[in-house]
Amino acid sequence: MSFDGMWLPAGEDPREAGTGPTRGERECLVGYLEHYRTTLALKCDGLSAEQLATKAVPPSNISLLGLVRHMARVEHSWFRRVIEERMEIPRLFRGDDEDAGFTFPDADDDLVRASYEVWEQEVAHAREVLDRTDLDKVVPTVDGEEIEVRDVVVHMIEEYARHCGHADLVREVVDGRTGQ
């Protein structure tokens, strides 16, 4: 395989650092979640505010910046509201004009910086919550169902994996880069 600008050369992919066989359920689940968090960051790397705001497939409003904002919302909801059982706190990007993070005003460097800060803060908080929470803990969801924390982690992996697929398509529209 050749290096085509998106595929990082061997030894330079941050997702490969310290990789090897996982030991145990927690290490496996957290490893996959971290892999996809890093993948989303890599998909957005090196782009301008305008490029991050580019929508891939009209009429969809999915953009890389929208995905970052949306995943901040998802991290916030599952880790703060569900696992910490703090349903009273308002959801991020809740208004009709924000569409769960996908809709935003004209993108500029300040909006990009603020959006990344929110996402990074929510990821950092989620890591801390997961570090101190047993996967067997049962928590109530928004609709009152009870689930285990491991179900939340599996859902987060699924959510990131799906949206990283969207990010592949958006990035290809932006500058032709694909894969990885």
UniProtKB/TrEMBL annotation:
Location of the region described as Disordered in the Swiss-Prot/TrEMBL record: 1-23
Protein name according to UniProt: DinB family protein
Source domain of life: Bacteria
One Pfam assignment: MST
